[in-house]
UniProtKB/TrEMBL annotation:
Lineage: superkingdom: Eukaryota
Chain intervals with Polar residues compositional bias: 478-488
Cross-referenced Gene3D superfamilies: Leucine-rich Repeat Variant, YVTN repeat-like/Quinoprotein amine dehydrogenase
Region Disordered, residue ranges: 465-493
InterPro entries for the chain: ARM-like (IPR011989), ARM-type_fold (IPR016024), Raptor (IPR004083), WD40/YVTN_repeat-like_dom_sf (IPR015943), WD40_repeat_dom_sf (IPR036322), WD40_rpt (IPR001680)
PANTHER family with a match to the protein in the record: REGULATORY-ASSOCIATED PROTEIN OF MTOR
UniProt similarity note: Belongs to the WD repeat RAPTOR family.
Coiled coil location: none
Record's protein name: Regulatory-associated protein of TOR 1-like
SMART domains the UniProt entry points to: WD40
Length: 1029
């Protein structure tokens, strides 16, 4: 009575509401259609909201979620505290609760109560009067209890979905409130409009908490998502979420796998994958990706499911996805195929028997052959994400077939035969797959009880100092823990060089040979983590790879050299989509012993793929599934199979759903502003360059000189477009960065740990944004770096081999390449018979263009105006123009260098919009100006140097070119052939002659010329007009 009287006197209704009516409120507490039930419902929502905001989350769960009576008791205590505090009384509870009587939600309660009670006089007077529901839940949809109220359910779910999309913290808070049983119960509804938002909510929940899979299967929730996955009216992005939910349900959960198989999930996924291949329209990549991941998780470590997949032609359906443009889709397809390689795992195990069962199952064997052939075709994929999955797949295959693979490897590494030089590559070519792996098998080593033999790049040496450890001795994952001698293994399977098998093999020798070659290729991968995985795979079949670093104590950095420390590089794939995340990767020691002596070191995987407008979104996934199993092999109680390298694509892909999906992630205002400023700068200076009249470039034009301290001289250099920075590299693949205005070194690091051939090219990717440094080695390996101007902060973004398929007998690739920003294409060639066209946006080889010449390409240049157009110079002095937009690709060919047939040293497109105007320079010293679309003969010839031309540079916009000579000479010409200047290197104060010119490069938007020399000196020159400005 006191409470009702106090409420009525404080209420806005005090004039019309009699406090005696409070005790006559009609209705039932459990009936929301009555006044009393509505008030009780609102009171519950308000008090729960207050408690959740004020109490610690653990205490809230204990008092308000574990027991209904306790929850009711403490709700009433919150109300009692508010009333008694107003009467100067202090209520006490155990456990003691923080004050709640002044929480702002009490104002919402007062308002809702007044609105409800405003109907009380009419309801008391007329018992037939109908109660009008309160607008409280329409206006206050933050109370999660309304989820079970049909009139507000859809709006409440949408609001909940928007809240969960804010991040993992929001999901955690929602689960702590007790949202789980409500959304679980809602899966029993059949309301069509709720399906999409429910799938979204469960996607967000399972992206954070995988443990919900048990309750989902127990309540039959998986059927709800399978039906949604199979519905054609839903958008592909939404069905991708359903596939993700199902993948989480079956991830490591045998009951979930069995339940989903019973519900026909395998056939549903395969049906949609097959349909996407038949449909000409592009299927949503995320949908394809998660169909593959769902299948892989569904039959992972589950033989019955794998057999169903093989019988349903799963390999033939998944294999076409390996050519999809998205690396995530390709990697997911590899994962799905790899998990099928366990079929017949026990029957393939050495010494177990049961091969006859596999022989009887020709279907399974044929499907496994399809899988292996498909994997071999992408061993040299452009994405490290894909190659990592291939390595993991080959590790699974090697473990199941290791005795056969060991026998093949042992036969070709026998010291008394030279079969490694011939037989293994030939066997790899039997099925026409010789171009999938590098012809350089080494450096590999085998040592036994007999004469040691070391194979390096196809040569056998019996006296190498590296011959210190056995290849064929016991691998950590060999049949038993004892170490086998070479003779022991060879006698087990080989007699007089011929492989014997007491049982029929699942595959033929040619297939096993190709697998061994593929493993060797992965072991020499330019990406450190992939190479580690490749060596891990080789160790399974008893091959140990030892690579000798060219770094020695004598090549340590000099005092003051910024390259004194270089952290372990990280790497990643090129990120195309709006969500690409960092992940942890392992890095093992270079050689494998029994067991390895140290745990893996952390290596960061960072994302990059949009080549025209790149944005990094770092996201660390602290997952134990890092792609490398614990290296301490041989631990007791742990199965050998559990020590295999683990896939990373699943955990990597799960990170996508942890990010906000409902809000667009546009570039920040700061990035847009900087991009616009750089665009203005570029346009202004392009106009100046096009209309500039270069006065002179000579020795007096030098504005900076830098001693790089390279021991082998400067091999190549690059000027940054928007900063006074020059980047240089040497034969040992050391990279150094220098600010030429302040004359200070910024950074220095090694391109990789085992340089062999030197660096052939430096390019900038995404120069309008935070540019990336593309470093091309002479062996065709590409590495892309970010943060390369900050000392010690450089990170390896991605790495791949750009040249595949070598000419017979060629030992040095002499790779040449160029980057085209507009198209996102990288053109690469060398001592091969074709020009490789890579799409860095897709991280994929999109074409192999026949060079139409018996000679090798010695110079490449892409047009910076016309996307898809490039020119190539050859060692016989010929020049060809290509355009990938036309069917034949080869536009025209000519041989301008006829007086002395020498290799083309440099080639470039002339500034301007003319598509066929090219400048070509040969080693003989002549520079030819061509318009090969209009006439085959040159229209201008400059005899710049006599038999000693070493470098050519063509300005991107200004009408000038420069050529360098081995005779310490640089000449600058106009496009009309007028000599604008000559730069002669002088004697130094030590009276030593400065070395020959090794490289030349122009600033893209200013008349600045950087010249590198064999003496490690880099000089920068500016014309008089530029210096005046």
């Amino acid at each position: 009575m006191v409470t009702s009287s106090r409420f009525c006197t404080r209420s806005l209704l005090h004039e019309s509401l009699d406090c005696l009516l409070i005790d006559k409120i009609p209705g039932r507490q459990n009936d929301r259609k009555t006044l009393l039930g509505e008030l009780n419902w609102i009171f519950t929502a308000v008090t729960d909201t207050i408690a959740w905001n004020v109490l610690p989350h653990e205490l809230f769960r204990r008092l308000f979620r574990q027991d209904l009576l306790v929850a009711s008791l403490f709700r009433n205590f919150l109300l009692a505290e508010r009333i008694m505090r107003s009467a100067n009384c202090s209520p006490v509870s155990y456990p003691m609760l923080p004050p709640t009587h002044q929480h702002h939600m009490w104002d919402a309660w007062d308002m809702a109560a007044e609105i409800c009670l405003s109907q009380l006089p009419a309801l008391v007077e007329d018992h037939n009067a109908e109660f009008q529901p309160s607008p409280f839940f329409t206006e206050q949809l933050t109370a999660f209890e309304v989820l079970l109220s049909q009139c507000h359910r859809f709006r409440a779910l949408v609001l909940l979905g928007r809240f969960l999309d804010m991040g993992p913290w929001a999901v955690d808070l929602a689960l702590s409130v007790g949202i789980f049983p409500y959304v679980l119960k809602l899966l029993q509804t059949t309301t069509p409009e709720l399906r999409q938002i429910l799938v979204f909510i469960w996607t967000k929940i399972l992206a954070l908490d995988k443990s919900c899979q048990v309750d989902l299967v127990k309540d039959g929730g998986h059927v709800y998502f399978i039906r949604f996955l199979n519905s054609v009216e839903a958008y592909p992005e939404q069905r991708a979420m359903a596939a993700f939910v199902l993948a989480v349900i079956v991830d490591g959960h045998r009951r979930g796998q069995e339940a989903c198989i019973e519900a026909g999930l395998i056939h549903v996924c395969l049906k949609h994958l097959h349909g996407s291949m038949q449909n000409d329209a592009q299927t949503e990549p995320l949908f394809l990706q998660w169909l593959c991941l769902c299948l892989g998780k569904l039959w992972e470590d589950f033989t019955e499911a794998q057999i169903i997949g093989l019988q349903a032609d799963a390999p033939s359906i998944c294999a076409p996805l390996l050519s999809e443009p998205q690396p995530e889709v390709r990697a997911s397809a590899v994962f799905a195929l790899a998990t099928l390689l366990d079929v017949g795992f026990d029957s393939f195990r050495d010494g177990v028997g049961g091969d006859e069962e596999c022989d009887d199952d020709e279907k399974s064997r044929a499907e496994i052959v399809v899988i292996i052939k498909s994997l071999l075709n992408i061993v040299s994929d452009g994405s490290p994400l894909v190659r990592a999955e291939v390595a993991v797949a080959l590790a699974r295959f090697a473990f199941g077939h290791k005795q056969h693979l060991k026998s093949i490897a042992a036969a070709y590494w026998k010291p008394q035969s030279n079969s490694l030089l011939n037989s293994l590559p030939l066997l790899a070519n039997i099925n026409g797959s010789g171009n999938i792996v590098s012809s350089h098998v080494g450096p590999l080593i085998r040592v036994g009880n007999d004469n040691s033999a070391v194979v390096r790049d196809g040569r056998v040496s019996t006296s190498s100092p590296l011959a210190t450890a056995g290849v064929m001795h016991g691998s950590p994952m060999s049949d038993d823990s004892s170490q086998h001698s070479d003779s022991g293994i060879l006698n087990d399977g080989i007699s007089n060089g011929v492989i014997r098998h007491s049982r029929s093999k699942p595959l033929d020798n040619a297939m096993y040979s190709q697998c061994v070659l593929a493993m060797c290729t992965l072991a020499k991968d330019p990406s450190p983590r992939i190479a580690t995985l490749g060596r891990r795979v080789l160790s399974i079949i008893g091959i140990e790879q030892v690579t000798k670093s060219v770094k020695s104590a004598g090549s340590s950095a000099r005092p003051g050299d910024p390259a004194t420390s270089s952290p372990t590089p990280s790497f990643a794939g090129l990120a195309r989509s709006s969500s690409w995340f960092d992940m942890n990767g392992g890095h093992l020691p270079l050689t494998f012993r029994t067991p390895p002596v140290s745990p893996p070191r952390q290596s960061l995987l960072t994302g990059m793929r949009r080549v025209c407008s790149l944005e990094f979104r770092p996201h660390l996934m602290n997952s134990p599934d890092s792609g490398l199993a614990d290296p301490h092999l041989g631990s007791s109680g742990v199965s050998e199979r559990s020590l295999l390298p683990q896939s990373t694509i699943y955990n990597f892909s799960c990170g996508h759903f942890s990010k906000p999906l409902l809000t667009a992630s546009d570039d920040s205002e700061e990035l847009l502003t900087r991009r616009e400023e750089r665009e203005r700068f570029a346009l202004e200076h392009i106009v100046k360059c096009q209309h500039s009249s270069v006065s002179k470039l000579n020795n007096n034009s030098q504005i900076a000189s830098w001693d790089t301290r390279f021991e082998t001289g400067t091999r190549t250099a690059l000027l940054q477009p928007f900063s006074p920075i020059v980047i240089a590299a040497d034969e040992n693949e050391r990279i150094r960065v220098w600010n030429y205005e302040e004359a200070t070194p910024l950074n220095g690091f090694d391109n990789h740990d085992f340089p062999e051939k030197g660096i052939s090219k430096l390019c900038l990717l995404n120069e309008l944004d935070n540019s990336l440094l593309l470093v091309a080695s002479c062996d065709g390996n590409i590495r892309i770096w970010k943060d390369y101007t900050v000392r010690g902060k450089q990170k390896l973004v991605t790495a791949f081999s750009s040249i595949q398929g070598h000419k017979p007998g060629v030992r040095s690739l002499s790779a040449v390449l160029d980057w085209q920003q507009q198209s996102g294409y990288l053109y690469a060639s060398g001592e091969i018979s074709s020009i490789m066209l890579w799409d860095l946006d897709k991280e994929q080889l999109v074409n192999s263009i026949p060079s139409s010449s018996d000679c090798s390409v010695s110079a490449l240049a892409s047009s910076q105006v016309h996307a898809g157009q490039f020119a190539a110079g050859f060692v016989d002095g010929s020049v060809r123009l290509y355009d990938i937009r036309i069917p034949d690709m080869l536009v025209c060919a000519t041989r301008p260098h006829t007086q002395q047939v020498e290799r083309v040293v440099g080639i470039g497109f002339q500034p301007g919009l003319d598509q066929g105007k090219i400048v070509s320079a040969s080693q003989a010293g002549d520079i030819q100006f061509l318009d090969i679309r209009n006439q085959r003969d040159t229209y201008l010839t400059i005899d710049a140097h006599r038999g000693s031309l070493t470098a050519l540079a063509v300005h991107r916009h200004a009408p000038i070119i420069a050529s360098g000579s081995a005779k310490q000479l640089i000449k600058v010409f106009s496009l009309e052939g007028e000599q604008l200047g000559i730069i002669r290197y002088q004697h130094t104060f030590m009276a030593q002659k400065i070395g020959s010119v090794s490289c030349l490069t122009f600033h893209p938007y200013q008349v600045l010329l950087a010249a590198g020399a064999a003496d490690a000196c880099v000089s920068i020159y500016a014309d008089d007009n530029s210096q005046a400005r």
